[in-house]
Fold each of these.
Amino acid sequence: SQAESGIPAFYGDPPNAHHPWAVHDGNRPQPEVVTPGTFSSQEQPGTPPSDAVILFNGADESNWVSAKDGSPAKWQVNDGLLVVEPKTGDIQTKQQFGDCQLHVEWAEMPDVQGSSQGRGNSGIFLGNQYEVQILDSFDNKTYVDGQAAALYKTKPPLVNACRKPGEWQAYDIIYNAPRFDEHKTIVKPGYITVLHNGGLVQNHTEILGETAYDSPPILKPHGAAPIRLQFHGNPVRFRNIWLREIPEPQPVRP
Ligand code: MG
């Protein structure tokens, strides 16, 4: 029995993992080898891991289009930075993504202007509709479910980990998209986890629906979607944007 063998009941994969491998099975396939990235400093961005999809590396915004009409993105690319350009609207990736690990670095302008939601507002929309808020929340009070690193209108961050305006900040986001069946019924909730400047601020937060500012979250069926960056009239700067796609779990045994 398990008690006699000393092996805990939940040792290793759970009993509903449909794979044929024994514990410590030498025939189980090895994970892909990747070259890890490097951390960024204030002075310069790090390098992405070798299996990353590069969305912005300082060269150009060719992986992005205007969200409103699909024309080439019209934000500024200056000195290796992607900068929100007045009167241009949101931009979104050409490519569509499902589950992913997304890395985004952003900085507010050092000369503080505006207050509350009007100070350094942008945002990252996972699934093209669930906003992880970007805001200058350093010494800038606003409603807590709309401050930096909030899942907008859904959940405030666990802590306020904002750096001073002008300093580079990082989001590392794990996005698990909600799943819907052929009847457009949700069969698995979606979740968002966020690390802000390396600290956990959203821990597997359940997605309740689209994070429009003026209406309650409503969950609508969708599949892979672009990642969108928000134009909110403030000149937020970005650098070093990349993601790693998370493969769909595949049962090995039918
Ligand atoms: Mg925003």
Amino acid sequence: MSFSQLGLSAPLLRAIAEKNYVDPTPIQAAAIPVILSGGDVRASAQTGSGKTAAYVLPLLQGLTLRRREPGRWVRALILVPTRELAAQVGEAVRRYGRFLPEPIKTLVVYGGVSINPQMMALGGGADVLVATPGRLLDLIEHNALSLQAVSVLVLDEADRLLALGFAEEWGRITRCLPLERQSLFFSATFSPAVTALADALLRDPHIIELAPVLKEEPRIEERAIEVDEPRRTQLLRYLTEENGWTRVLVFVATKYGTEHVADKLRRAGLDATALHGELSQGARTQALVDFKAGRIRLLIATDLAARGLDIEELPVVVNYDLPRSAVDYVHRIGRTGRAGAHGVAVSFVSAETHAHFQLIEKRNVRGILREQIEGFEPVEIEPPVPLVLGGGGIKGKRKSKKDKLREAAGLARPVNLETKSVIPAGLVVKEPEPKEFFPWAQRVMVGRRMR
Ligand code: AMP
């Protein structure tokens, strides 16, 4: 399937060619013809799947075919969870629409910046408005726009929107929208709440369900490194230098944490910058521009700041602090290995977060080998947890308790077989509880010192 077979017009094909896209991604091949035919779409699509072009291209084509009315009308509304994603989608709309015979007026609005310029810009309406819901509602309250002429509504990253309180906002936005419209719904995950929202706003949708990108293209190498919490910054520095990582996106739980880690890295001579929601929009944009241009080596970000970022060929993502949920984990590591590029996602696992990481693995049905790096072996104390030796776990082939004890005793200095790093002495060897035994886990060793 090629782009020219999807029914897109010549100016759009030219913009695609200029981006050097060879073939449509699966979501593009599935969604573009349906959207062009005017149908509603409910698509499960992750960041990195090419979903933005999947809805922007046909949306633009539809707009060129429909008549533009004078006034403060918005013709297409794209709702996104964060400012970064808003800016990114706005940029995509401009880029894909640049060869269209009639210019497409695209506006991007989000909170955290002055509302006045946005109100002024909306004076003559907009062909495409990309908005975060909170600021959209502010603008509606200020009478700055009318949504009555919206012919296409897009919800991008609907699960993220809901996580940020969209359910209540949607109730107010939907009252301003016409019933007669095309609605396109994109979400990485479909919890009951997401499905209910989709059901509420879509009419007889075409459902597109593609296998998650991560499973389709396992091009992200996931690593879990055991380290004591106070030594994480040193380890991060060591890994960056040792592996020659040129650009690293590091996730830290708090705003203070991002500043603190960035500061320590800078003092150690590395180019690091913090990115969090309390920075001014200008500072955030600048940090991203610098990171994309390679002027910053490590971008230390909170989840909110990093959500939806599209940084092409980002080689490494580090979970300095683990994400809160398994879904967040998938989102975070999806920042690397994008559009087919190879990526590495490293998670730091400490005695405190060990159980939480196991839960993330279990929820995402994956098992990640625990590694230790020589010189950074954890020494922090926690109650003993099970040790599973060998890559086993296939039913009927599990080693007996005695076998495992014998095996562990036989290894004078047990070694992580993959990294060749040494497991510290004093590990507890214990039969795993059945509930903690994951058949899919390729676990060479998991262990902790005794109290
Ligand atoms: P998205 O999932 O929309 O965030 O897109 C992820 C990345 O894939 C972006 O950097 C796009 O520029 C890129 N992309 C989108 N469509 C294609 C395509 N057909 N071929 C190659 N790259 C693409």
